[in-house]
Structure to design on (327 residues):
C-alpha cells in the first residue's frame, strides 16, 4: 500500500469545552506519523477560545496550524477554506463536538488506501442520523470502538448518505469533484450533496463499521427555529437535485443496513468492566464525570453506576453511558 498522511480540518466557533476534548482525542488516539496538519479554523470565536487555540498551536508545533477568519464565514465556507489549504492524501472533516477513538483516523485512512475508488468514508457514531449507535449501558465510547475493531475489522458498507461530523475524503476525490457547495452556508446536507456529486465522478461512499466515534451533535448551532428552518431549506435543495438517485440508494441500503448488521452481530461478552464507581449524588457526578472522561481518553475503563434521576439533573459532558440503578 502507498504511504499516506491525513490532514484534519476542524471548523470552530466557540464550544470550548467540547473543542478541548476533540483536540485531546486526536492527539491521544492517533499515531503522529499518520497526521499531516491539523487545521484549527476559527470562525471568529471568543478571546478565551482564541487563547486556547494559540496554546495548542504552540504545544504541537508543525502538526497544528491555527487560522482565524477575518469575519464569520459560516460552516461550509470555513470547511472549504481548510480543504483548499490541505495537501495530504486524505482529509478528515471533524466537528468540534466529535471525539475520535483509538486508531480511528488510521483505520479510516487504511480502508480508503486499500481501495482508491472510495472517495468518502465515515465511521459509526453515537449520534449520526441513519448511522447512529447509542453507547450501551455501562460502557464508554472507547470500549464500543474496541469491540467494533475486534469483531468487524475492516468491514465496510455502502453509504446511503454519509454523515459529516467525522468524514474522510480522498485527495483524488477533492481534485476531481471540487469543494462543498456554499449554498449550504451554515451546514446540513452539504456532505451528502458532495457525496452524490462524487458518485457521478465514479467515487464510492462507504461506512466503516470497525470504527466508532463520539458525537454530541448540534453543540455550536443548537435546535433554534432558525436552524430547523435552515435544515428544511437545505433538504429541499438536496431532494430537488438528487431525489431519484437517493431513492435508488436508499432501496439498496435498507437491505444491507450497517446498524441492523451491528445489532445482529455485536457481542460485549468479553469487554472488561474496569473499576466500578457508584454515583450516589449529583455532586458526586459533577466531581467524577470530568475525571472519568479524561481517564477514558487515556484508555482506562471505569464502569459507572448511577441513578436515573441524578443523570437527569446533570448538564455536564458525559462520554459514557452509566449502568442504571433503581431510584
Amino acid at each position: 500500500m502507498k504511504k499516506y498522511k491525513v490532514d484534519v480540518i476542524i471548523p470552530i466557533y466557540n464550544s470550548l469545552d467540547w473543542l478541548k476534548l476533540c483536540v485531546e482525542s486526536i492527539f491521544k488516539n492517533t499515531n503522529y506519523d499518520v497526521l499531516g496538519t491539523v487545521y484549527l479554523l476559527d470562525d471568529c470565536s471568543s478571546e478565551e477560545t482564541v487563547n486556547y487555540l494559540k496554546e495548542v498551536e504552540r504545544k504541537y508545533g508543525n502538526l497544528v496550524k491555527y487560522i482565524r477568519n477575518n469575519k464569520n464565514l459560516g460552516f461550509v465556507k470555513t470547511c472549504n477554506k481548510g480543504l483548499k489549504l490541505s495537501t495530504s492524501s486524505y482529509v478528515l472533516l471533524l466537528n468540534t463536538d466529535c471525539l475520535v477513538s483509538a486508531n480511528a483516523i488510521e483505520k479510516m485512512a487504511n480502508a480508503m488506501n486499500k481501495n482508491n475508488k472510495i472517495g468518502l468514508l465515515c465511521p459509526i457514531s453515537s449520534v449520526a442520523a441513519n448511522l447512529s449507535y447509542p453507547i450501551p449501558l455501562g460502557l464508554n465510547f472507547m470500549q464500543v470502538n474496541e469491540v467494533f475493531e475486534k469483531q468487524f475489522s475492516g468491514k465496510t458498507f455502502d453509504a446511503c448518505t454519509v454523515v459529516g461530523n467525522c468524514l474522510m475524503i480522498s485527495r483524488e476525490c477533492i481534485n476531481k469533484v471540487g469543494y462543498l457547495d456554499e449554498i449550504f452556508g451554515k451546514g446540513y446536507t452539504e456532505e451528502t450533496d458532495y457525496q452524490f456529486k462524487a458518485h457521478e465522478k465514479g467515487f464510492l461512499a462507504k461506512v466503516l463499521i470497525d470504527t466508532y466515534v463520539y458525537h454530541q451533535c448540534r453543540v455550536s448551532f443548537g435546535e433554534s427555529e432558525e436552524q430547523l428552518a435552515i435544515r428544511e431549506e437545505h433538504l429541499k435543495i438536496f431532494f430537488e437535485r438528487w431525489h431519484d438517485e437517493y431513492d435508488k440508494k436508499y432501496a439498496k441500503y435498507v437491505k444491507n443496513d450497517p446498524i441492523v448488521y451491528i445489532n445482529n452481530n455485536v457481542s460485549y461478552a468479553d469487554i472488561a468492566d474496569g473499576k466500578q464507581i457508584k454515583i450516589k449524588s449529583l455532586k458526586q457526578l459533577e466531581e467524577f464525570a470530568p475525571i472519568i472522561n479524561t481517564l477514558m481518553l487515556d484508555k482506562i475503563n471505569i464502569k459507572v453506576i448511577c441513578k436515573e434521576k441524578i443523570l437527569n439533573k446533570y448538564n455536564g459532558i458525559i462520554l459514557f453511558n452509566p449502568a442504571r440503578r433503581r431510584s
